[in-house]
Amino acid sequence: MRKLVGIDIPLSAEFVRALQDIWNAGDCAFPIDQRLVQKQKAQLVDEFFVDEIVTTEGRSVLGAQGSTIAENDAVLFTTSGSSGTPKGVIHTHDSLQANADIVAQYFGDTSQMHWLACLPPSHVGGFGVISRALIWNCQLTTLPQFDAEQVESLARQGVTHTSLVATALGRINSELFERILLGGAKPPPHLPPNVTTTYGLTETMGGVVYGRTALSGVEISISEEQEILVRGPVLMDRYYQQQLGHPIDGDGWLHTGDLGSMSVDKQLSVTGRRSELIISGGENIWPEAVEAALASHADVSDVCVVGIDDHEWGQRVVAFIVPTKTSQTHSLAEWRDHVAESLPRFMAPRQVVLVDSIPRSALGKPQRQALKETLTSHT
User: Fold this and answer.
1) Shortest CA distance to 153 belongs to which of 170, 141, 163?
2) pLDDT tens for residues 68-110?
3) At 370, which helix (H) or strand (E)?
4) Cβ distance 160 to 171 under 8 Å?
5) 79 by DSSP, 3-state: which?
6) Which is it for strands 300-310 and 314-323: parallel, antiparallel or unpaired?
7) Would the pTM of this model clear 0.90, i.e. be above it?
8) DSSP string for residues in 306-371
9) What's the rounded Cα separation, in Å, for the pair 41 and 6?
10) Dihedral sign from CA coordinates of 110, 116, 121, 123
11) Strand, coil or helix: what is 274?
């Protein structure tokens, strides 16, 4: 019987060895987020019926009952989605191989590459660096977490490629690398020429669109409802242990939950998550557009926009703003006027909340649901 084996080890050579041992035994790996407290880790282990756990102290049998790991299962990722409830996404060795193959087609010769893994391997973006390097049999260096000085030092010592999020990219000299893959949150408006933006999901084994163009072997389509659909060998096998339905339809298309459009020359533009669309007064409002308008203000250090249920408007636009250290005090009317300089006035926030920071995931994505809950818990 195949086992689900948790890896509760910081990203390191030891983590990579543990992963290889799990695969050599024919089992499925479950990288556990190292930022979680012990109680949260234990809850995940229970919820996903983990059979064994590997820590820095060795491998332990947990004796869980209920695991449904199949022969070709390679890795389990957890993803919270918009609801905040963890889902288990299973990828097989076939989808990992397919991911490595299509990314290799993008890069060409991978044999001389030296990759740096410094994103959490509990996320598909960080894990993909490791799995591809193992399949390509190229050099791989790991860091337990992103550290700008160490990243730059390793690049000077011969590391050629890495995968980062926008926040990390802004803290290093990107010219030290041959190529950087950028995923997670929305990229900055101006990118160095050696940085490639990616679009993908946990369910697609990470990026399947590089620089707005689908990778070879991956099909992208836009439904009548403007939802982005993905088809190809990189897709997940199934959700694990949960009656969630299957996001892949009978024709093999993954329904991503993202909305977007495709130009005549097959360039993908992503509008945003369907679940994050704000409908206020009958108007469709994308939070990213409002965030960009507010971020252009000199007194804004960071910003996140959400929709809160409202009896008058259906939803009202609420902006959580992290002011700069030298920020002046601004009225709601002034914030609305600033947004109205570049967007229709109906998109301007009807409430502004000043906060010390915006909660973000390891990949830099704003945690909108957490902000909504802080606001609604006080109403």
Assistant:
1) 141
2) 899 999 999 998 644 456 789 999 999 999 999 999 999 999 9
3) helix 368-376
4) no
5) strand
6) antiparallel
7) no
8) EEEEETTTEEEEEEEEEE-TTPPP--HHHHHHHHHTTS-GGGS-SEEEE-S---B-TTS-B-HHHH
9) 10
10) negative
11) helix
